[in-house]
Amino acid sequence: MGTTDVFYFEGLDDILIAMMTKKDTVSTAPQYGEIIRLPIATKLKVKGNGSELEKWASSKMFRRVSRETKHELGLDHVGIPIELMDQIKGLIAKNGVTFGKNNARELPYFAFGFIGNVEGGGKKAVWYPKTQLSIVVDEEYATAEEETKIDDVTANLVATGLLNNGVMYSSFDSNRDSALGVSVDKFIKQPVYDETQWDTVLNIPNYPQSVIGSIESDGSVKLNWDAVDGAKSYLIHYANANETDPHKAAFMGYHETNSWTLAAADVPTHVAGDKIPFYVQAYNVVAPSGTTDVEKAAALHDGPFTGSAWSTPFVATFE
Fold it and tell me: Which three-class secondary structure state does DSSP give residue 179?
């Protein structure tokens, strides 16, 4: 995507909750239980506590430092399962009854996430890895009326940074150029709280580098690149002539070594002066099926596999 491309947020999708089973420390990461995905959200309000500190010197602003340490989340929803809400509140029911006490206590922590729909089929998702229910109760009960209606309920949450690394939230957007080949399902597979952990979740090789190419005398296009450690196959993505948006590189090739040739008959229609970009993507698996390169490319691309980021393109310029 270019820096001028704007995509509107279409609406809130499901929310995600995973109870923290082991709290983080300054030297250890948190651990979580099962992720529960709920289609219950009607609105989510986010309010930060950002502050700025200005330092002046020689009658000039020398530095302006900003900091944010928590987000207050107001989740309007149609209902959270009672067993889950008891876990969030740290309550244990006895014969259907829980008891709220006035003693000081630390409420349980959990990871809270949400998914959003973006214009054009895109997805946005956010994880707050350390969240608690706000102890401030804000509930309202009303009488039933003749006309049936379903009122929203509000859950007030507070998200703070982890002791382990200070991360307060992680955010995924499928419209980022670096998200090519990465699905939102991969991001929500587990609470994402660290860059190294995210690399582990992806379990992908590095992106191919030093991609070079040439247009052969027979009209074919030949590419070469540095072999990637751990890569077992490569997808080559390319577009119609003069298409600069990598998201529109709809054609694919497949190879299991660090070179590939596109036959002249398969090169998209072009005239003198046209340019066709080629991107290379590494995978740590081979195609699960297919007899032709096109079939193998489709099987790898459409399967439950995640490839590397795309390489810097080689642009073939035709004469």
Answer: helix
Tokens (6 digits) for 230: 């751990």
Bridge partners, 127 (sequence order): 113, 170
CB of 99 within 8 A of CB of 5? no
- Cβ contacts of 11 within 8 Å, gap of 6 or more: 116, 117
CA-to-CA dists, residue 34 to 73, 130, 234, angstroms: 22, 15, 34
Q: Would you say the C-alpha torsion 1, 198, 226, 257 has a positive or negative sign?
A: negative
Q: Which of 20-29, 130-139, 252-261 has the lowest mean pLDDT?
A: 130-139
Q: DSSP per residue over 249-271, as a string?
A: --EEEEESSSEEEE-GGGSPP--
CB 139 within 8 A of CB 85: no
- The per-type count for the chain, helices as H runs and strands as E runs, is 4, 17
For residue 184, is it left (φ>0), alpha (ψ between -120 and 50) or beta? alpha
CA distance 65 to 53: 5
Residue bearing the bigger pLDDT, 239 or 179: 239
**95: alpha, beta or left? (left if phi > 0; alpha if psi -120 to 50):** left
**What pLDDT, in 10s, does the model give residues 204-242?**
778 899 999 999 999 999 999 999 988 999 999 999 999
- Higher-confidence position of 91 and 204: 91
Q: In this predicted structure, what is the pLDDT of residue 3?
A: 57
8 Å CB contact between 221 and 261: yes
Strands (E), 135-220: 153-160, 170-173, 212-215
Entry pTM: 0.65
